[in-house]
Amino acid sequence: MESQVHSKVQEYYGGIAKSITEGQNKSCCGCGSTGNQSCCDGISSSAVIYNGENLSDLPKEAVDASLGCANPLVFARLEKGETVLDLGSGGGINVLMAAKHVGETGKVYGLDMTDEMLALARSNQEKMGVKNVEFIKGFIEDIPLKNEAMDVIISNCVINLSDDKPKAISEAYRVLKKGGRIAIADIVNLKPVSADIKSQTDLWCGCIAGTLELQEYRSILEKAGFHDIEINPAHVYTREVIEQLFGNSPEYKTSGVDMDKVDGAFAGAYIKAVK
Ligand SMILES: C[S@@+](CC[C@H](N)C(=O)[O-])C[C@H]1O[C@@H](n2cnc3c(N)ncnc32)[C@H](O)[C@@H]1O
Fold this sequence. Notes:
Helix content is about 35%, strand content about 20%. It has helices at about 5-20, 45-50, 60-65, 75, 95-100, 115-130, 165-175, 195-200, 215-225, 240-245, 250-255, 260, and strands spanning about 85, 105-110, 135, 150-155, 175-190, 210-215, 225-235, 265-275. Strands 1, 2, 3, 4, 5, 6, 7 and 8 form an 8-stranded mixed β-sheet that branches.
């Protein structure tokens, strides 16, 4: 099941997890940008993404490891007692927050394929002392959980990294109970962008190379069997936002991207659907 993309992504996120564990750098760049400190002061910082959520009882390392692009808990509407799975749980920020929402009678699983991220997440769980959480190793394209076991699936800026998105979405469908829901935050394309532009942009902002257009995303969800699909682009990456986020990074300055083509082409979206 392990692919070249998996290895590349594991190496990249493993490095980020290691540096956080060693207290070397603060990786607040949304969705795994280049990791350059200069790009870490923009809208993707955890304080902005999780505006309104109480992050003060989370370990600092969990907040520092936030690599998402929006807050899936805003629209997941988690209830006490629910069983939740977070696809690509990273350092565990969404899992640990979800654990508070579902309470002691609920349970939250975090699934990730990167050992260093799992170690960081487990250490964050221990620091927080939460019992209703379990971090498991595996691929989102081959979820190691049984059929129809979850009430809700959340995910934050991970599906775009998958090299087999239809499989990842159909696996999400398989493990959801009938009537269960997904609440995914992800980067999407708002207009067609060439593969060249995507890979240039990916140099300074990760999570771009594999983004889908809205209709493609909807079609994958429909084919998997989901209904009541809603895809709302919540944070549009306009030229101004991009300049604010990445303007100081050397990768941005040297990437030579035609900004007219990138302006407004990508957005952090809220994606909801029901099984
Ligand atoms: C951009 S980070 C997001 C982490 C977390 N969701 C957050 O909001 O901070 C992506 C995470 O997804 C994991 N990941 C990427 N592709 C994956 C796959 N195919 N299967 C399992 N985990 C994956 C990576 O190891 C990494 O921890």
